[in-house]
Automatic annotation (TrEMBL):
<comment type="similarity">
    <text>Belongs to the short-chain dehydrogenases/reductases (SDR) family.</text>
</comment>
<dbReference type="GO" id="GO:0016616">
    <property type="term" value="F:oxidoreductase activity, acting on the CH-OH group of donors, NAD or NADP as acceptor"/>
</dbReference>
<dbReference type="InterPro" id="IPR036291">
    <property type="entry name" value="NAD(P)-bd_dom_sf"/>
</dbReference>
<dbReference type="GO" id="GO:0030497">
    <property type="term" value="P:fatty acid elongation"/>
</dbReference>
<dbReference type="Pfam" id="PF13561">
    <property type="entry name" value="adh_short_C2"/>
</dbReference>
<dbReference type="InterPro" id="IPR020904">
    <property type="entry name" value="Sc_DH/Rdtase_CS"/>
</dbReference>
<dbReference type="InterPro" id="IPR057326">
    <property type="entry name" value="KR_dom"/>
</dbReference>
<protein>
    <submittedName>
        <fullName>Unannotated protein</fullName>
    </submittedName>
</protein>
<dbReference type="InterPro" id="IPR002347">
    <property type="entry name" value="SDR_fam"/>
</dbReference>
<feature type="domain" description="Ketoreductase">
    <location>
        <begin position="4"/>
        <end position="177"/>
    </location>
</feature>
<keyword id="KW-0560">Oxidoreductase</keyword>
Length: 235
């Protein structure tokens, strides 16, 4: 049997890189995409700008010609442009929606072409707890992550009869370069709001992604799977 192929968008750093490393450990041939920067050591990579339909198309063609059809798609690429709504520009709102939501759609739409031929596959969208509970100063980001839920569930209904699942992983506050910049007061406030009283590691998110990518999760689709220490419970 050939080695199954996984594509992780935005996989050159942070949560995306942790996901790529875990999938590689689980036996996948992992291809990471990135818009800028360099490829992480030990991984095949492609340049893909998820805000460009042509760039997404070119990236998939490159993967298919060199490796074959990716059967696990992790739509992880995303950006933030935080700010209070009254001062948020149209550009800051639309850039986040175009990358986080429209970008995930462009990738998933192109991926279905191969998945339908395989008659199997996983669409895994990296969302966020704020897609359910909201966050002051992140109206654009929260809206983009909330939109992933409706999109993933619609993909689940469209593609389920062909053995293709579609789910959202919803992390809470994760130890990344971005959260490392929080001051001690804000960090303590966040930890106090989380029932498990700590931030999540990128590896913990990656472990859940790997489970959903596995055969053990073949009967899970249309789900929002929280990895948030209980922060968003009940939503």
């Amino acid at each position: 049997m050939t080695q199954p192929i996984a594509l992780v968008t935005g996989g050159n750093r942070g949560i995306g890189l942790a996901i790529a490393q875990e999938l590689k450990t689980q036996g996948f041939l992992v291809v990471v995409s990135h818009r800028t920067g360099s490829a992480p050591a030990g991984f095949d990579s492609i340049i893909m700008d998820v805000t460009s339909t042509q760039s997404v198309e070119d990236g998939f063609i490159a993967i298919e010609e060199k490796f074959g059809t990716p059967e696990v798609i992790v739509a992880n690429a995303g950006i933030t442009r935080d700010g209070l709504a009254m001062r948020m520009s149209d550009e800051d709102f639309l850039d986040v929606i175009d990358t986080n939501l429209n970008g995930a759609f462009r990738v998933a739409r192109r991926a279905t072409r191969g998945l339908l031929k395989l008659k199997r596959g996983r669409l895994i969208f990296v969302g966020s707890v704020v897609g359910s509970v909201g966050a002051a100063g992140q109206i654009n980001y929260s809206a983009s992550k909330s939109g992933l839920v409706g999109m993933a569930r619609s993909f689940a209904k469209e593609l389920g009869t062909r053995g293709i699942t579609s789910n959202v992983i919803a992390p809470g506050f994760v130890e990344t370069d971005m959260t490392a910049e929080l001051d001690e007061k804000r960090r303590t406030e966040i930890e106090n709001a989380v029932p498990l009283a700590r931030f999540c590691s990128a590896e913990e998110v990656a472990g859940v992604v790997a489970f959903i990518a596995s055969d053990k999760a073949a009967y899970i689709t249309g789900a929002v799977i929280p990895v948030d220490g209980g922060l968003g419970m009940g939503h």
